[in-house]
Every structure is written in C-alpha cells, then in structure tokens.
Amino acid sequence: xxxxxxDLRLRKIEKQQSDNxxxxxxxxxxxxxxxxxxxxxxxxxxxVNAAAEAFRASPSLGDHRLAEQxxxxxxxxxxxxxxxxxx
Length: 87
Hints:
- The chain is mainly alpha-helical.
- The chain folds into 2 domains: 1-41, no CATH class; 44-87, no CATH class.
- 72% of the residues lie in helices and 0% in strands.
- It has 4 helices and no strands.
- It has helices at 3-18, 27-41, 48-57, 61-82.
- Helix 3 packs antiparallel against helix 4 (61-82).
- The termini are far apart.
- The model has no long low-confidence stretch (mean pLDDT 88).
C-alpha cells in the first residue's frame, strides 16, 4: 500500500470522527447533554433509579434496553463517586 493511499484512508477516518458533534464538546458540555437527556427520559419519575425500575417492568423490549442503559449509567456514577471523581 502506498503512502498516498494510507494518507487518503487516514483523512477519511479523521473526517468520520470529526463528523460526530460530541467529539467537539468539552466535558462540561457533554455532562450538560447527558443531564438534559436524562431529564427527558426520566420525566415523571422521582429518580433515575425509579425510571430504570419502571422501564424494566414494562413489557416493551425498547423499554428493557433503556433500563439496561440507565442501569449502566447508575453503576458508572456510583463508581465515579466511590473513586472521588464525581460529587
């Protein structure tokens, strides 16, 4: 493979990565996006845990998947807090 072909492929990969709007956000902006998304998903529930439980109890497969994602987030936050990286 020539250097030119490799260079073209690298540019294509870099462009694909830069097309993701989240790549250009700061940590604070990403946190804000996550919190806004959680506010929408968990609207009407007293907590993220309560929302996850409700979605888990739903007969909908989509709700079950959402509950799994919320469970992951809950675990992530617990680990970060235990490590002192999140308040």
